[in-house]
Amino acid sequence: xxxxxxxxxxxxxxxxxxxxVNNVSMTINKGDIYGFIGRNGAGKTTLIRMITGxxxxxxGEIELFGCSGISALDQSRIMMGCVIETPTFYNxxxxxxxxxVSRLVRNIPxxxxxxxxxxxxxxxxxxxxxxKNFSLGMKQRLGIANALLGNPRFLILDEPINGLDPxxxxxxxxxxxxxxxxxxxxxxxxxxxxxxxxxxxxxxxIINNGKLLEEITSEELNEKCKRYIELKVxxxxxxxxxxxxxLNIKNYVVQENNIIKIYSHLGQIGNINTxxxxxxxxxxxxxxxxxxxxxxFLNIIGxxxxx
Amino acid sequence: MCRMIHAEIYKLFRTxxxxxxxxxxxxxxxxxxxxSKIMSSEDFFRSSLKxxxxxxxxxxxxxxxxxxxxxxxxVVIGNIGMRNPSKDIFHPTARELFYGSFGSGVxxxxxxxLIASIVAGEYSSGTIKNMLAYGKRREYYxxxxxxxxxxxxxxxxxxxxxxxxxxxxxxxxxxxxxDINQALQLLKIxxxxxxxxxxxxxxxxxxxxxxxxxxxTIILGVVIFSxxxxxxxxxxxxxxxxxxxxxxxxxxxxxxVTSVHAVNSDxxxxxxxxxxxxxxxxxxxxxxxxxxxIK
Lengths: 307, 295
Prior knowledge:
Oligomer: heterodimer
Keywords (chain B): Membrane, Transmembrane, Transmembrane helix
GO molecular function, one term (chain B): ABC-type transporter activity
Order of helices and strands of chain B: HHHHHHHHHHHHH
Order of helices and strands of chain A: EEEEHEHEHHHEHEHEEHEHEEHEH
Distance between the termini of chain B: 23 Å
Strand content of chain B: under 5%
GO cellular component, one term (chain B): plasma membrane
Largest sheet of chain B: none
Pfam families (chain B): ABC2_membrane_4 (PF12730)
Number of strands of chain A: 14
Shape of chain B: elongated
Number of helices of chain A: 11
Largest interface: A-B, 32 and 25 residues
Helix content of chain B: over 70%
Radius of gyration of chain B: 21 Å
Structural class of chain B: mainly alpha
Number of strands of chain B: 0
Strand content of chain A: 25-35%
Helix content of chain A: 25-40%
Structural class of chain A: alpha/beta
Protein name (chain B): ABC-2 family transporter protein
Number of helices of chain B: 13
């Protein structure tokens, strides 16, 4: 059985009469990098704030490291690190001083950890610079450093790569991958930059209008999003022989109703159509299918919005 | 809890607002000494009343003395600022200026600024998220803030009182022979004032937690503790019920505890008002914070 780090059960948050989060049941296993996807106002940050204890839930359950109940949950939150929306700091203090405040509040022993996290995020050379003079990218890095302070077991990053330049994005992505791999740190990352998220996440949760529409692993997603050519023909057996012998197509599956899915030769739709037509195999339908994460997300959201 | 208090004190000493308020406290103390020096000069008064005949000048000065200390009353209603409560304004003593240096109505303004920066500032800058997102109990957070602000308050008040007292001792002398009882009396007044101050801090903290805005915290602090007591003071002495309410307010008790004529029962009453306010507003503040959604 997998070690569960976070489990929510029918979690709800109501503002006035409106649900900001509606019956969300999600599960994050140890070592996962959970990509949390949703539009602005979908409920991502509200859910994250409930997990971190900043806002009160209207109903439902939160279980963190197997602990539920108010005081047990508070105890287990010590094992978290988080960046919620834009990282915020005391502007008249240096990065080191801000981390010292955080270290004291979170009861982390020893000051060595401050240098470690500053080195890790590439901020070791900003000793006397006050945070008010930091760029947005530097603040994001400091936010991640703050979250990593004291080696938390569960990292929550809400839009961690906002404001980062492309080089920094890659650096942060690689850093998070490294930490996940080396320390087996579980992560919940929400981001609008789905291409970045797809490079990082091992599973995804898609939220829209406060409802969690789908939880899916990256393997399942890859399977669902795999690009292929879908054919509907009059005679599947004959078509397959022709495809194998004439075009050397081996990577395919035949399904019911004479449907063939071809996972190679994606740029040869025309050749395939010509081959089959000239050999008296009627092609009723020929389509290029498959999606990337962005398209998959839009498809799911679109489907929900059309309900 | 100890680590949270440590963190709050660490922040306090690095907050620009606190450093600026310490400088303001020094400036106020110097102004207080300077004003008393000018006021103590009879020649200065007479030169400003040049056109008047001598007997009118004498009458005017006599009136001024009376206004400054009307019938030895404990509290001069509606009087705010760092006062000169000397019996004879031309011969003030450091002992008298010590009582006037507590800055009734002024320290509340400084406190409002400090609390706005430390409490409401956390909301407006969003740093409160970093403090509360790790399962820290909100009552600990609130109490830590109260303790840190109280330390800041005692330091600012200490600067105002010490600079004024030391400066005026150099200029005018203590006034009576200084002995251990005098020292204990000073300490007693300072501690009693600090306790009343705790009530004021807790009250402004509650406001700040409710409204979460730096500017409005300062405005409300100034209005409630400086302007309003002065504005409504004209009602004092007209209605018994009003007098009773007025005498239970923090601004009145601050003025009472720092009065030259206050006796032990006055000091105890002021302390009781301070403690009761502290307990009520602290409980209310914790309740408000615990029920808040931090956005």
